[in-house]
Amino acid sequence: MVEKSGSAFASGFLGCLGSLAALAFVGFLGIVLFAWCVSSIDLDSDGSILDDLGGLADRRITVEVGGSSGLSFSGTCLVTSGAGSAATHDIAGRVPMNRTFEGNLISCSVQKQQESGTLRATLRVGDRVIESSSTTQPYGLVLVAGFP
Question: Which residue has the higher pLDDT, 84 or 101?
Fold first, then answer.
């Protein structure tokens, strides 16, 4: 058994207290920083977050389905609005086809209804491409999603 002198024990104990105090101080700074960040977000009168997070206003989003002319396809788009509502829209037809939705978040899955050909889905806001994906696989599926 090893005996420690009183000064060695006190030194170790004070070192441990110093470490705990440093951790408490860092935790306190983290809480202050978090509170400052939360308080800097503007809220509407109803408590919803305004455009601080990159723009929550609804935008006109165009889904362009292209590829091999006449290719048949079917799919679904989920569109979320700034008000928090979400709606599912079925899309089907032959290439080329454009559909326009109002929202701030969109996710679409589009599948070829035949083996041959190319299917491409593109999301646009105005002239800006948000995302585009294509497939040549038999009965292939494309997924596109974006936050315009």
Answer: 101
DSSP secondary structure code for residue 53 in this structure: G
* Cβ atoms of residues 110 and 142 within 8 Å: yes
Helices assigned H by DSSP within the chain: 6-39
Amino acid at 24: A
Q: Which of 80, 71, 52, 85 is nearest to 146 (CA)?
A: 80
Half-sphere exposure (Cβ direction) of 71: Cα atoms closer than 13 Å: 29
Query: Per the structure block, which two tokens stand in for 89?
Result: 């829209």
Which tens digits make up the pLDDT trace of 92-136? 999 999 999 999 999 999 999 999 999 999 999 999 999 999 999
Domain 51-146 has CATH 1.10.150: no
**DSSP letters of 58-74?**
-EEEEEEEEESTT-EEE
User: pLDDT value at position 68?
Assistant: 98
Q: Is the pLDDT confidence value at 6 over 70?
A: no
On the 0-12 / 13-18 / 19+ scale of CB atoms within 10 A, 144 is buried
Nearest to 96 by CA among 79, 75, 115, 120: 120
